[in-house]
Every structure is written in C-alpha cells, then in structure tokens.
Amino acid sequence: MNAERYQVTVTSAGRPAIHGWWGREETARAAFTKWIGEYGNLPDARVTLMDEETGTVLTTWPDEG
Fold first, then answer.
1. DSSP string of 21-55, one letter each residue
2. N or C terminus of the chain with fewer C-beta within 10 Å?
3. What is the pTM of this model?
4. Cβ atoms of residues 35 and 22 within 8 Å
C-alpha cells in the first residue's frame, strides 16, 4: 500500500491552503468530507481528492456542474 496515494487539497482564492496524503481511499474520503466542514467557508474554497498513483481527480467540492 502506498502511504501517499490519495491526496486531499484545499485551496482558497486559488492558492493552496492545506493538503494531506493517505494510503487508503476510505480514509482520504473521510478527510475530504471533514475538510469541507472545516475549510469550506474560506474565500473561494475548493476541496479536491486525487489518486496520485493514477493522476485521477476522484471528487471535488463544490461540484463543477
């Protein structure tokens, strides 16, 4: 298991605010949800969960749609 496979990033006003890495997708998804609550009120906040191994963005908040 790659301990840094899943990355959650929070940006505010287009600038990095906080990021973390997890080896399990379930743990990273829990952090993603928690960080929306903790940092979602920052100016122009955006939270992204990415699989670093594949380069795939798994989910973002707020939705782009």
1. EESSHHHHHHHHHHHHHHHTTSTT-EEEEEETTTT
2. C
3. 0.91
4. no
